[in-house]
Structure formats: structure tokens, C-alpha cells
Amino acid sequence: MKTLSYQTFKPGTQPQNESVAIGDTAETFLPKEPLTNPPKVLIVIPAYNEGKNIGAVLGGIQKQSPGIPILVVNDGSSDNTEKVVLEHNANVINLPYNSGYGIALQTGFLYAVKNNYSIVVQMDSDGQHDPANIKDLVEEVQKEDCDVVIGSRFLSKDSYKSSLPRHAGMLLFGGIASILCGRKVTDPTSGFQALKGRAIQFVASDNYPPDYPDADFIILLNRCGFKVKEIPVTMHASPKKESMHHGHKTIYYVFKMFLSIFVTLLRKSQKR
Q: Given the DSSP bridges, would you call strands 193-196 and 16-22 parallel, antiparallel or unpaired?
């Protein structure tokens, strides 16, 4: 059991110090209550130096899904990310230093657990994910045969272009995940997902991969008995010239992903 402390900023209010305790026992994954009608939904967006892009992302979400609260986890940004988020009346958690995508994302899920959200939609902050698909993810994850819905760019009719190394990595780890999960996995690196109930608490636990929760996380979910499916979504080219897996980080990513998958296969499954 461990405790995470952080500051939450809400527009028009003073910053609040909050903390949440998490553990890694199977009991953690039992939902506190069934989905409400309508369900209590939260959108979580990890962001690192996205001051130039986050405003358009938040504006698009608020246009397509008005009324759904948004939480931006500001991962130690040195630019005006926090200022832009507050200007768009979204909540923000400021991490004291850059902790990485996985930690920032998990922080949002810890917040969701503490505040009893029944569905979490995770999105990236660079504008790749189309807010028009939020409703599709939320609708699909409410079905009984699903705990996690992943938005796949490769199931969409729109063609998505990526660099050759990145596409090769997707095919490699998608193939590994497909074999180990016993079903086709087309987009193992998609960060556009919706999770509900026990899956939210699972992400908030010590089981969550802290670096790059991609194919390894899908495999882990499958081994723990969660029902995962993919649906087609639209993804746009990132305005950034470089992805978080560029250059020498590509080698590091491949090594870490193989290692994480290997460790996942060694772990004892915690069936629900």
C-alpha cells in the first residue's frame, strides 16, 4: 500500500492538497457501485509542455462532449500548459517534475478512484485524438461484455500514415499481443481508451506499467480477466515533429516493452 500526494487546481478556487492510498490486491478491483445512468464520466489528459496544443484539444472536447469534466495532469511542464488549461475551465493536477506518460496517466486514474468516477476516457494532449469519438468509446464501454475499449486508428476507413519504424513497431507488438491474448490487436500503442469499474481501479494500482503502457498493458488486462475490445476511431497526425519514441528513445522503448511483456508473463494472474 502506498500514498500519492498532489495538488489539484480548479478554476476560480484555491489549490487543494489531496492524497489517495492505493494497493495491489485483487479486492482493490471490486467496483464500489454499478454504473449510474447516466454514468459518471471523467476525461483524463496527461500533458507535458503542450501549451501550444492543449487549448484546441480542450475546446474540441467541450464542443463535442459538453458537460463531461476534464482533468489535465500537467507532468512538470515548463511552459504555459497550466495557464491554458485553467483558461478553458478544466481541472489540472500539477506534478512537481516530469514523471513520464504512465505516471501522469495513473495519477488521473487515482483521482478518478478517489472521486468515484465510473468511466474514464483517456486522451493525448497533442490533438491526435478526435473528440468526436469520445461518445463512441463511452457508449461501447458501457456494454456488459466490455471493461476496456481501445480506439484503433487502423480499423477506421480513414488511412493513417506513420513513420516506417513506428509502423513496424506497431505490427511487431500488435502481433505479440494478438498471439498472447488470443485475438487480433490492431493498435497496441493507442492512448485513446475508455475504461470502467474495476479496470479503473486496476490502472490506479501497483500493477500499472509506469513507462509505456501499450502492448504490455493489453496483455496484462487479458491475463487478469478483463474484457478488452477495439473500435475504429479517427486519429490525426501529431503536430509535433517528433514522437515520444523518436531517436534513441526507440531502442529504449523496444527494450522496455519486451522486458515489460516478459515480466507480465511471469506474474501470477489476478483473475477477477
A: unpaired
Residue 204 sits in a domain whose CATH number is 3.90.550.10
Q: Beta partners for 230?
A: 150
Per-residue model confidence as pLDDT tens digits over 91-129? 999 999 999 999 999 999 999 999 999 999 999 999 999
Residue 247 CB partners (closer than 8 Å, separation 6+): none
Cis peptide before 38 (omega within 30 of 0): yes
Angle between helices 248-266 and 215-223 (to 10 degrees): 10
Instruction: Choose among 193, 192, 188, 191: nearest CA to 167.
Output: 188
Q: Is residue 27 part of a domain?
A: no
Q: Supply the pTM of this predicted model.
A: 0.82
DSSP structural state of residue 254:
H
Write down the pLDDT at residue 8: 63
